[in-house]
Amino acid sequence: RLQISFSQITAFHKPLRRLFCECQIFVQLATLMNSGHLRKDSHELCCEVLDTLLVLFSGSFRNKTIFANSVTYRALERLIMNCSPILTNEIFKKLLNMLTDKDFSELDTSSCTIEHNEIALTIFSLLIKGKNRSEIKLKVLDKFINLCEYNTHNCNSCVAAGVILKTIELFTSSEGDISVQEQSLKLLSILGTHSFSVKELSTFLQLFRPIENSYRHPLLPKLVNTFTTIATKQGPALYFLFSGVQSSFICPPSIYSSFPGQRGFSIC
């Protein structure tokens, strides 16, 4: 049984973590989850796999690259959908852990740093394609708003991953759910202020089209306010992100241990 927990085996043993990569453990896990022979405890199995991936991903840029090339995040999305068409709170919490490479802090979200931005795209894809209730959609949007509102690094990570287009897609797919659409517009205004491409602008302007049996969109005033905010409020004109992974900034542990976030900083 997989419930013996790969995560316990690899948690504190780096040679075993390398061995798991060399033996294509990512591919084996994906094959297992997509086999079509899952039992009724597949949700528990899915959580076990996510725990294992968290251990293998945490602090390892190489492992993330191997996973992206050998399995892909679309495969991760599909295997989660196979096990749980509805994004449960437990799976969402584990995805947030993967997003930040650590146990996600529910109390101080703004101090958490996004270290694995491809997971952000996976979370939004699961929201859009799954049979999810408004409550979980609002919870995801609230978490990302708190992550990005006062954090340039997190905004940059979400924009680079393509979260803006996914948020617009979530807005469109949540027709009739005003609360979800309003929170989607709030996240769009935060990310759009940081960066907004021509493609994203073109897609956003399509939201102004009137819906069926209505001469204008019911949220037209809020759409206009979001567009005005994006167009007038400027983010930092220039910024440098030192992630601690792809940068060459090094400092003694006694210095970075005093910072509230993870290793790395930004200058705006």
Explain this structure to me?
By secondary structure, this protein is mainly alpha-helical. Mean pLDDT is 76; it is low at 1-13. Helix 4 runs parallel beside helix 7 (89-100) and helix 12 (178-194) packs parallel to helix 14 (220-232). It is 61% helix and 2% strand. It has helices spanning 6-10, 14-22, 25-33, 42-57, 61-70, 73-83, 89-100, 117-129, 134-148, 152-161, 163-173, 178-194, 198-205, 220-232, 253-256, and strands spanning 240-242, 265-267. The chain has a two-stranded antiparallel sheet.
The coarse overall form would be globular
Helix content: 55-70%
Given the helix and strand composition, which structural class is it? Answer: mainly alpha
Fraction in beta strands: under 5%
Q: Tell me how many strands there are.
A: 2
Overall mean confidence score, pLDDT? 76
In DSSP terms, counting alpha (H) and pi (I) runs of 4 or more, how many helices?
Answer: 15
pLDDT under 50 segments (min length 5)?
Answer: 1-13
Radius of gyration (Å): 20 Å
Major sheet attributes: 2 strands, antiparallel
Biggest sheet strand order reads 1-2
Along the chain, the helix and strand elements come as HHHHHHHHHHHHHHEHE
Through-space gap between termini: 50 Å
Name its key features.
268 residues, mainly alpha, two-stranded antiparallel ribbon, 2 strands, globular, disordered N terminus
